[in-house]
């Protein structure tokens, strides 16, 4: 692969320093032309090359991502309860979901909103729309935004760290290829954790059923 879009974008924003990092992290929440994991890997490599310090790069990208997350959340939160319910029910009908099922799903989200807001920030693509889901479902702003900030920090720190520590071994390599490889490893890990969680829940239900008999 000769074309390296991640390296091309990093060369463009490099001239703007930390302001450029904040801006690209903010823009990625709304216009994800280049996936965030690729950009973050490149930012970590830039920190290893002393284009910026590692802590400053981490804080700048987290701030940009969190600002975009909050902006999307409060924009859709401004629709109000009536419009949110109408939008939610309309979307549910498109996917064949009954009103009762939507209400059960909404109740489940509200009981676990902090955990879900955090977890969804670790899922590629879905993480960009998670604040919109939370706003439409009328999640509590403080719980959702604090949990989202923690998820953004973990996501950014993971890929910036990978780029930083891998920079010496891929000095002449293609950053886009590295980004895709890292994403593949992340997805495999998430799928494994998902199936493990399902197995644990199923086992717990069987144990409870045996105890009740």
UniProtKB/TrEMBL annotation:
The chain crosses the membrane at residues 6-25, 54-76, 143-165, 177-197. This is Membrane-associated protein. The keyword Protein transport does not apply. Keywords: Cell membrane, Membrane, Transmembrane, Transmembrane helix. The keyword Thylakoid does not apply. It is found in: Cell membrane. It is a multi-pass membrane protein.
């Amino acid at each position: 692969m000769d074309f390296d879009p991640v390296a091309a974008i990093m060369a463009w924003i490099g001239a703007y320093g930390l302001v450029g990092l904040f801006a690209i992290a903010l823009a990625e929440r709304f216009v994800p032309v280049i996936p965030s994991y690729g950009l973050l890997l490149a930012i970590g490599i830039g920190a290893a090359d002393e284009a910026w310090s590692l802590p400053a790069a981490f804080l700048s990208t987290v701030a940009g991502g969190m600002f975009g997350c909050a902006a999307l959340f409060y924009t859709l939160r401004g629709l109000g309860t009536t419009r949110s319910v109408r939008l939610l029910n309309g979307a549910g009908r498109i996917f064949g979901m009954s009103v009762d099922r939507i209400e059960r799903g909404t109740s489940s989200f509200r009981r676990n909103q902090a955990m879900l807001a955090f977890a969804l920030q670790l899922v590629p693509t879905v993480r960009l729309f998670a604040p919109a889901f939370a706003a439409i479902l009328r999640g509590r702003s403080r719980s959702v935004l604090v949990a989202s900030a923690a998820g953004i920090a973990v996501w950014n720190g993971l890929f910036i760290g990978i780029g930083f520590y891998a920079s010496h071994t891929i000095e002449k390599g293609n950053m886009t290829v590295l980004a895709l490889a890292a994403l593949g490893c992340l997805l495999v890990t998430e799928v494994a954790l998902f199936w493990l969680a399902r197995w644990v829940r199923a086992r717990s239900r069987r144990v409870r059923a045996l105890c009740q008999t």
